[in-house]
């Protein structure tokens, strides 16, 4: 068995081998899984995923030293409009390095921003294609912004200069229009952009009747790290939102997906305020124009009516004579008809009275005969009910204190009774 090597000696062999066999630099395509900057040095974790399963199949560490990073970082951000972040596809020029104390790593010598721009554009186009397939890409464009859009829900960072500029531009507009704004706080930079804005949209959705429009603004500082506005989920939420969404996220590069699906896209928060002011001014102008048209129409109508009245007033005397003649003729006809009808009615009533006078004696005689017969019948009924008649037939009536006795149970011993007969009265004592 040969003499074992120390770890330092083994690592030195690896270092020498790499320095000997891998002297060149290599361009490598990879995805960033982690990026951190420490003391102006940039440390990256590179990853490659399987296209079918999306699981990692290769990993490596990469470093960009301060002297290189201070040049590459700003240049990459200026061209792409974004900083390096996890999930980004990059094309790096790297050189192998093995340090006996720190191990192996790839040293980044250059970054190709055009590759990243191409990948970002590809992702953006893929999202746009999917939105078109879902039929939601143009939904916001089909909405109508209220003519009086004055109640505005604002999604922004509360401390951002852009939010202050937006509010100032609205409140100090040259026309003196009134606007009511309510801030819904959201993260507007970094990995939390998508989730934060969606949460703000959900909060606005619950109270959608309280607002006329939604403004998403981001202003001030650099225009880096805008990838959060190029996501499918955020685009779907905005596209399907029931209120018009206006974006002013302050960047000059190509439109983000959020800009494309929104109702209207402006460049800056100040421009978003100007958009709302101009929209209200346009409504005001339309009202003014309508008012002028209405006034003009009313004046013309009044003039026409005045001319018509003048013509009518000229015709009134002749028309009055015609009407007077017609009415006098009509009254004469009515008078004649009334006189004739009165005479006919008087004759009919006189004839009726004569007929009644002739029939009255006969009617009275029959009435008297009927009443006499009825009186005879009543007299017979009264006679048949007379108590004296009952007494004459052999019946008697027993009285106690002047009242007839009908039940012996109501008497007691010693009571004095009076019995009336057909002839005479008998008094008796109860025993």
TrEMBL record:
| UniProt family annotation | Belongs to the XseA family.
Q: Where is the OB-fold nucleic acid binding domain?
A: 6-112
Q: Which GO terms describe its molecular function?
A: exodeoxyribonuclease VII activity
Q: Which residues form the Exonuclease VII large subunit C-terminal domain?
A: 138-428
* Keyword Hydrolase recorded: yes
Pfam families per the UniProt record, alphabetical: Exonuc_VII_L, tRNA_anti_2
Q: Which gene encodes it?
A: xseA
Q: Record's superkingdom?
A: Bacteria
Spell out the subcellular localization from the entry.
Cytoplasm
Q: What reaction does this enzyme carry out catalytically?
A: Exonucleolytic cleavage in either 5'- to 3'- or 3'- to 5'-direction to yield nucleoside 5'-phosphates
Q: Which InterPro entries match?
A: Exonuc_VII_L, Exonuc_VII_lsu_C, OB-fold_nuc-bd_dom
Q: Which PANTHER family match?
A: EXODEOXYRIBONUCLEASE 7 LARGE SUBUNIT
Q: Which UniProt keywords apply?
A: Cytoplasm, Exonuclease, Hydrolase, Nuclease
Q: What is its EC number?
A: 3.1.11.6
The protein in question is named: Exodeoxyribonuclease 7 large subunit
